[in-house]
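Dear H.,

Thanks for agreeing to be a second pair of eyes. The structure we're designing against is below in token form, covering all 229 positions.
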């Protein structure tokens, strides 16, 4: 496996662009604090002024949040899901891999999922803060609300109940919640016009078989020395 922790762009700060095949970290901060609670080693597919595309390979060791007693978050009833104490644990990304696409400055990324045998399943719009680049990868904050887009171009909202509960529990203020709704509507307009990245044929993409699965570094939660948008 390739060690993400050993990878930096330059001594001074983040790379202007990473080359294909470079391992980086794709991370999310917790919503009511500054700590990283999701970290996923990924491999850069493309990185330029228009798009960052990365591959999350099956079996990748990641970090995810769990309740303090180790219970998976999704198993906790919604009414107490965001108020019970949490910790993080290492786990592996099971199932098929995920291709993640992020356009600079946009408050969402688009993820592609496949069934076994590379049968395309769906696009997934993950509403989030625009990615912030640092020397070892990219950071964001997830906004709970998502959109599923099917191969026939139909779509539906996902996790509206989680979005509402997070708002009630104080994980985002009214202004942020409104900005998320606006971002969601902008994503829907992009779906309606079938703009990039939906129209770019990424569902036909396949990973380079020579790529190793990046490993999770011990300092996966380190504070970046330099960041850029």
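And this is the sequence the design step returned. I haven't edited it by hand at all.
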């Amino acid at each position: 496996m390739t060690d993400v922790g050993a990878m930096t762009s330059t001594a001074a700060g983040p790379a202007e662009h990473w080359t294909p095949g470079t391992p980086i970290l794709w991370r999310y901060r917790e919503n009511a604090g500054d700590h990283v609670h999701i970290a996923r080693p990924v491999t850069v597919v493309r990185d330029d002024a228009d798009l960052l595309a990365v591959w999350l390979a099956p079996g990748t060791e990641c970090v995810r949040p769990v309740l303090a007693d180790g219970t998976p978050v999704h198993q906790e009833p919604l009414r107490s899901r965001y108020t019970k104490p949490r910790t993080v644990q290492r786990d592996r990304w099971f199932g098929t891999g995920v291709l993640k696409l992020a356009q600079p400055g946009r408050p969402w990324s688009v993820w592609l999922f496949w069934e076994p045998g590379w049968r395309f399943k769906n696009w997934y719009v993950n509403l989030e803060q625009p990615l912030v680049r640092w020397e070892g990868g990219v950071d964001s904050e997830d906004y709970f609300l998502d959109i599923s887009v099917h191969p026939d171009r139909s779509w539906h909202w996902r996790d509206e109940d989680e979005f509402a509960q997070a708002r009630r529990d104080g994980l985002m203020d009214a202004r942020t919640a409104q900005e998320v709704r606006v971002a969601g509507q902008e994503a829907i307009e992009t779906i309606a016009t079938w703009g990039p990245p939906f129209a770019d044929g990424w569902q036909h993409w396949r990973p380079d078989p020579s790529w190793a699965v990046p490993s999770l570094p011990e300092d996966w939660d380190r504070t970046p020395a330099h960041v850029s948008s």
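Two observations from my side: Helices lie at 78-81, 160-168, 174-193. Residues 53 and 101 are 4 Å apart (CA to CA).

Warmly,
E.
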